[in-house]
Amino acid sequence: MSKPRIWLWILCLGASAGLAAAQANAVQAIPVREIVGEVRLAGRLAPKGVPVLLRVVFNRDLIEADQQEAIRTLTDAGGKFVFHHLEALGENEGKELYQVSATYDGYLGGQQLMDLTESARGEVKLELPRIARTLPAGGSSSSAGKTTPAGNRAGAAGAPNGTRLPRDPQAQAALDRAQELLFRKKDPEASIPEFKKAMKLDPWYGPGYVLMGLAYMQMKNWDSARLAFEEATKVEPGNAQGYLGIGSALNEQREFGSAQNALEHSLELKPDSAEAHYELARAMYAQSNWKAALPHAQKAVEINPEYAGPHVLLGNIYVQAENPEGALAEFRTYLRLEPEGSMVPEVKDMIAQLERILAE
Predict the structure, then answer these.
(1) What average pLDDT does range 247-255 have in this prediction?
(2) pLDDT tops 60 at residue 8
(3) Beta bridge pairs of residue 34
(4) Are the C-beta atoms of residues 235 and 209 closer than 8 Å to each other?
(5) Backbone torsions φ then ψ of 103, nearest 5 degrees
(6) What pLDDT score was predicted for residue 172?
(7) 234: three-class secondary structure by DSSP
(8) Which of 48-57, 151-160, 223-232 is the most confident on average?
(9) For the chain, what are the domain ranges?
């Protein structure tokens, strides 16, 4: 009677082994997809360390920042680069359309579309022509906007001050049109297509993503704003305003813990940002940690005494600290700085309540 049992066990074992082999073959059946290429600078092979960006393109007609998955690599000493295992990206085992782009100081950016829907391997050659004119070290003058009072939550991230202008003149033209619509004509929705055009032409320009994030913030489209700010930090890991924007958007989405992490990183990169101190104080206060929020709210008004929003937060903190005189002073300062602000009705109610308490 024992032999049939042993035979049955062997059969089961054989079935398991066969299943494992079938699964392994199924995995191996997915071909390895890759893109190899080279970068040339004005006809010569690029040096080691030129950054190359690859994005999955989900819309052939309009490459949008919030519809892409990006990875980066660097050229080797011979100007070569490779992106391995693209079957792990996208939505169709690597059978996707990709945009490959490169950028280098003193040269216009280069980009090329590569279609791997039929082939498992693609080859790219990116030619970057030399820029004939000298670009200024500072950002575009139109990029430097006034700090929006914090009562208007849409503008908390501020306007970016880029370290360079877009390398592509057409990208700069699209960016100028976008900023005209956003800042002068107060039409953030109309500015978005122009921002997308600019970023398609120069996908490495971090300040452009920050500006696009600001436009989405003004539209109260917090998800798209956060994605745009995240793009800024992907292409420029040291972009403090990108992390500030991420934290601001997350605050609006009431994801205060994640907001705090992004804002703390922003302050590591730029410690003198009044907006980042204020947004961090907001995140901490919302997590019932008003004692930790207090020094950041104070620092915000120390850096920028005309910044109205932090005075409301300070007023609320002083209420928690049972300091009605301090709270009343802060609320009155807010009304002086922003008499038409969005928080005026609530602030006036708080002032009336505090005046009654102090009169007793």
Answers:
(1) 97
(2) no
(3) 121
(4) yes
(5) -145, 150
(6) 87
(7) helix
(8) 223-232
(9) 34-128, 146-307
User: Cα(336)–Cα(28) distance, rounded to whole angstroms?
Assistant: 69
Residue 226 has pLDDT above 80, yes or no: yes
**3-state DSSP call for residue 18?**
helix
Please tell me the predicted confidence (pLDDT) of residue 229: 95
Q: How far is CA 200 from CA 22, 100, 171, in A?
A: 43, 11, 8
Residues 285-312 have pLDDT tens digits of 999 999 999 999 999 999 999 999 999 9
164 close to 140: Cβ distance less than 8 angstroms: no
Q: Are 276 and 256 in contact (CB under 8 A)?
A: no
Assess whether pLDDT exceeds 50 at residue 184.
yes
- CATH class of the domain defined by 146-307: mainly alpha
Sheet order of strands, 97-104 included = 70-74, 51-57, 97-104, 107-115
Mean pLDDT value of segment 3-21: 39
Return the amino acid letter for 188. P
Q: Comparing 72 with 19, which gets the higher pLDDT? A: 72
Provide φ and ψ at 124, rounded to 5°.
-130, 140
Give the tokens for residue 157.
Answer: 């991230």
Radius of gyration of the chain (CA): 27
Taking the C-alpha atoms of residue 317 and residue 327, their distance in angstroms, rounded to an integer, is 8
CATH match for 34-128 among 2.60.40.10, 3.30.750.24, 2.60.40.1120, 2.40.50.140: 2.60.40.1120
Using the structure block, give the residue that is written with the tokens 């104080």: 281
| DSSP state letters, 138-197 | SPPGGG-PPPPPTTSGGGTT-----SS--SSHHHHHHHHHHHIIIIIS--HHHHHHHHHH
